[in-house]
Amino acid sequence: MQQQISVITLGVADLARSKRFYADGFGWAPVFENKEIAFYQMNGLVLGTWLTSQLEGDMQRSGLARPGAFALAHNVASEAEVQPLIDRLAAAGGKVLRPGDAPPHGGFRGYVADPDDHAWEIAHNPAWPISPEGYVRFQA
Q1: What is the pLDDT of residues 95-110, one digit of tens each?
Q2: pTM over 0.90
């Protein structure tokens, strides 16, 4: 079976607040939106932000909890881009979890939570090149 992720959907409490974070912080524009959901076309997958109550109904599951034991990541082309993006995301309604710094394994990273407490790692990893299309390739 092909290794792929097609869509990642995040439950959100307030769609307008979530769209502000993703639009003003990352600079992303939805490719589709209605009063319950917004979809963002990424490089090879789609990110959805959906009202949690609607996501729970669709899944036939209640009590979806935040924060989860995961982090999404957004890689940037240089170390100098990490902290300014974290700051911009914080100004757009996010919360800085960890300012940019250099981890022992190399590179540079920091963490910010979106308004619904989903964690995003903002990272520069010089060993993982980013193609002009925005694809990150794992290289050991």
Answers
A1: 999 999 999 999 999 9
A2: yes
Return the exposure string of 105-134: e unless at least 16 CB atoms fall within 10 Å of the residue's CB, then b.
eeebbbbbbbbbebbbbbbbbeeeeeeeee
The answer to whether 26 and 75 have CB atoms below 8 angstroms apart is no
Say if CB 117 and CB 66 are below 8 A apart: yes
Residue ranges of domains in the chain, CATH in brackets: 7-58+70-124 (3.10.180.10)
**Host H or E run for residue 20:** helix 15-20
- At position 56, the amino acid (one-letter code) is E
pLDDT digits (tens, 9 = 90+) for 126-140: 999 999 988 998 876
In angstroms, what CA-CA distances link 95 with 7, 24, 75, 131? 24, 14, 18, 29
Asked whether the beta carbons of 29 and 20 are under 8 A apart, the reply is no
Q: Are 51 and 15 in contact (CB under 8 A)?
A: yes
Query: Residue for token digits 């959901």?
Result: 37
**What's the gap between Cα 125 and its chain centre?**
17
Which amino acid is present at 121? E
